[in-house]
## 1
Amino acid sequence: MPSSQTAEPQFQASSDPLPAAEEAQVTINSKSLREQVYEYLRGELQSGRLVPGSAINLALISKQLGVSKTPMRDALLQLDAEGFVTISPRRGVFVNPVTLDDVRHSYEIVGALEAAVIFSVFDQIENTHIEKMKLNNINLKTALEGDDFLSYYLLNIAFHHVFLELSDNRMLQRIIMPIRQRLYDFPRRRYIKEWELKNCGDHDDLIDAIERGDRNAAVRLWRDVHWSFSVYENYIRQFYF
């Protein structure tokens, strides 16, 4: 991350087109800065230093990071598109709170999309994938027993990715991940162990349906139980509100 003492790269304006190599380098550098600013802002949201409903002091952050308005703007546009902030013309940029309707709608979207992936890739799931899912779920339960919620979070993502990565629908995967981050990662909350153990039970049931070759049971479980707002509403209200 560039510090306020780090000299920001300056690009000389010119009417002449840049050589191809130089133009590519400018693009790479700009992307790198945008990604760094994005990751920094994600960290601030995750830690709770930027709280829901608060305005983001763009001038202060730009000065702290030693970056210009361009990478800051690009990072904020990405966060706005993903639902983490709202850019309000003439008023500023504000951190979005998570409402009960946000959670309900997110569950509906992710449940439908992940279930669609399970349906489409079901015949591609091999024993190696099943064993990976089983091992992940064992490690998830171990992490819960040790109150290691960071490991639990990462292992849970890995469990879902076993079947998600079998899909060639990259657009669908790009839709799912920001929604899941919005649910669980901004800001990071203390997990409810009882709820997460039930989620591990859903994982076991999914593995069982896959081993039995029951595609429809696997889809129904994932859409109508694992990602059901009504099934887990009590835990959801505890977790968020």
## 2
Amino acid sequence: MSLVEPPPGQPPRLLDRVRQALRIRHYSRSTEKAYVGWIRRFILFHEKRHPKDMAEPEIRRYLGHLATRLHVSASTQNQAFSSLLFLYREVLKKNLEGLHDTARAKRPIHLPVVLTFPEVRAVLEQLHGTPWLMAALMYGSGVRLRECLRARVKDLDFQRVELTVRDGKGRKDRGTMLPRKLHGPLREHLRRVRRLHENDLRFGLGRVALPDALERKYPSAASEWCWQWVFPASRLHTDDETGQRRRHHTDESVLQRAFKAAVRASGVPKPATCHTMRHSFATHLLEKGYDIRTIQKLMGHKSVETTMIYLHVVNRGADGVISPFDTDW
């Protein structure tokens, strides 16, 4: 099977069909990129044979290769498996059976890295401007990095003290708190962002990408203030599909680099990342006595078992057990 573009007039190639099927089902672009990448590698692994000429044995062999030869993580192998299931079930319309005995990478149990209150303060003190505001919002609201960057002006409700996370992990919306101490910095930040947006409008720009088919349904919405990114990028980019000059949200690497430097400068002896702020949010709420179900809802976890990991972080277990060495002698 060739992975190059087909001649004009030929039916769309397989990977284009996969992209189309993913977009019809409103999968994120990051998922689309990952799925197409795994399907491409699966085809190349089997010397460019077309997937329609392969089935369970070839899938089993490929997944086993990932687990036993490449030693990929369990989450990576699961993503590869999911991409192949999507290919066969949704694109090729072929059910797969007998894959239960496939060699699978074991998912290790890791406790998340968590910062103490003083450590969070120490890291934030090394950040300034927009990176500080983004990191503070991640800690104060418990949002993921991508959820923070994808926030739009309309998602901030200062009166209800709520931040709405749109299309979070699992394609679900949820609400979380909007820290009152960040209201002032956020309002000032939004004033600067609005001036930037108004300047873009004067040059015939100021349009942002909208979710799903909203741009076709509401043509003028893309340039309205409420739909603008809270954290827009400093530079414009050209959209690959429409050819329009737009301002995307800030790239993840901007905060990641700044946060890494802040951790190093703070002297905190932990391998903390941006995601550590989310872990610290959940752990500190638990330490303050909030119940696990409330934290699950704020974090957007599908299962409470995912949230339960923070019980182990605070060293008190589900029953609040305290070490006998810490009791009075």
